[in-house]
Design goal:
Blueprint (H helix, E strand, L loop, with lengths): L10 H15 L3 H10 L2 H7 L6 H5 L1 H4 L4 H11 L25 E4 L1 H14 L4 H8 L3 H5 L10 H11 L7 E4 L2
Antiparallel strand pairs: 1-2
Helix pairs in contact: 7-10
Length: about 180
Amino acid sequence: MTAKALPDFDVQALFSALDAQRRERGLSWTGVANQIWEMSAALNAQRGDHPISPSTLTGMPKRNATSCQHALFMLHWLNRAPESFVPGSARADARLPDCGPDRRLRWNLKALYAAMDEKRRAESLTWAELASVLRCTSNQLTGLRTARFATGIVLAMRITQWLDQPSAAFIRAAKW
């Protein structure tokens, strides 16, 4: 079984980077949420869905968590890849895919699941053994196959590290 220690995505550092950028731009948290949402203005107009809530942003420090999909909103606004918030990442200079106003960055959870399952099988690991390596439950891993929404950014980044692949391999600029 893989014994490589996988450092966690630093949610607190993401929040600190957001807060620093918010202050630099002279914005309220509502202003940040509005700017993040407007990055996909053309897509938003087509879809008519609801914007990211300021409480999604301000609640991160208390929860020490955010979904992988919500993290992409924030990372896009900061123009930083998830790896830049993983201490010691060999891919700290990674980049997100380009994304215009007619698209939104989205994790391709089915592709993440498929790559994880392929490597798990190649290494003859059970789901329980892999869950132990990734410090989660088996259900969190197998649930990615049919996930409609998201998993946490911390787990998504543990998986990409275990796969030894950049997060961008599983992130796309989607029209939905």
